[in-house]
Write a structure and sequence with these properties.
Length: about 210
C-alpha cells in the first residue's frame, strides 16, 4: 500500500470530486496565480487513506520539500519508510524495506507528475484539466479533473488557507480517499540544494528505468 500511494503522487492517480465540473477561466487564473507564486515549500505532512465507507486503511507521516523547477524530496517515516527525490530531471525512489532504488526520468507533463503543480511548473494545466473552485469559511478549494478519460484518476483537490496550501485530497477510481494534510510549512525560503541530491547507498539494488537505458 505504501508503494502504491507514493506512485499515486508521482503519476497523479487521483480521485473524483462529487458534482459536475466545467471549464472555468476564473478558477484557472486563480489556481495558476497560487502555484506560480510558490518558489519553494517545506512542510511536514500526515497522509491518511480511507475506503469508500470512511474506514482508515493506512496512515503515515513524513516531510515534503519542493522547489522550482520541478525539484522534490518526499520522505515517509516508519513503518512505511520511503524516500523520493527529484532534481528536476531524474527521480530516485528508495524503498528501505526492499533495499532497492529505482531511477526514472522526470516526466515534465503535469498530468504525470503532480509535484510540478506545487512548484509552479504546471505549464499545461489548462490543456490537461478542467478546473473549478469553491470558497468555504476556512479554505479556498480547487478541483482538477483530467480531460483525458484514459487516466487512472478522476480528480484532485488543492485546499488553500490564505496563500498557503493546507492539504491535498486524492480520490481514486476504487473509491478510496487519500488526504495529505500539511503542517509547519515554510514558504519561499532558501533551501539547501543538497536536499535534491541522492547518493545511492552501498549494497542496495538499483533498477534503472530511465528511457533508453
Amino acid at each position: 500500500m505504501a508503494k502504491y500511494l507514493q506512485t499515486l503522487l508521482l503519476t497523479l492517480t487521483v480521485g473524483l470530486f462529487s458534482g459536475s465540473v466545467v471549464a472555468n477561466d476564473a478558477a484557472l487564473a486563480d489556481f495558476m496565480n497560487k502555484v506560480k507564486s510558490l518558489q519553494t515549500m517545506e512542510a511536514d505532512f500526515e497522509q491518511t487513506t480511507r475506503d469508500g465507507m470512511g474506514r482508515v486503511l493506512q496512515q503515515m507521516t513524513g516531510r515534503l520539500v519542493v522547489a522550482k523547477p520541478g525539484k522534490m524530496r518526499w520522505s515517509t517515516n516508519e513503518p512505511f519508510e520511503q524516500l523520493v527525490v527529484s532534481d528536476g530531471e531524474m527521480v530516485w525512489i528508495y524503498d528501505m524495506d526492499l533495499e532497492q532504488v529505482t531511477l526514472r526520468d522526470m516526466d515534465q507533463r503535469v498530468q504525470e507528475t503532480p509535484a510540478l503543480l506545487l512548484t509552479g511548473e504546471a505549464t499545461d494545466v489548462e490543456k490537461s484539466f478542467l478546473i473549478d473552485e469553491e470558497k468555504t469559511s476556512s479554505d479556498h478549494v480547487f478541483q482538477l479533473v483530467p480531460k483525458d478519460p484514459s487516466q487512472l484518476f478522476e480528480s484532485l483537490e488543492f485546499h488553500y488557507r490564505g496563500k498557503q496550501i493546507s492539504r491535498m485530497m486524492i480520490f481514486d477510481a476504487a473509491g478510496q480517499i487519500t488526504e495529505i494534510a500539511f503542517s509547519n510549512a515554510r514558504i519561499n525560503h532558501d533551501i539547501d540544494s543538497q536536499a535534491f541530491v541522492f547518493d545511492v547507498p552501498e549494497g542496495v539494488d538499483v533498477i534503472d528505468g530511465r528511457h533508453g537505458r
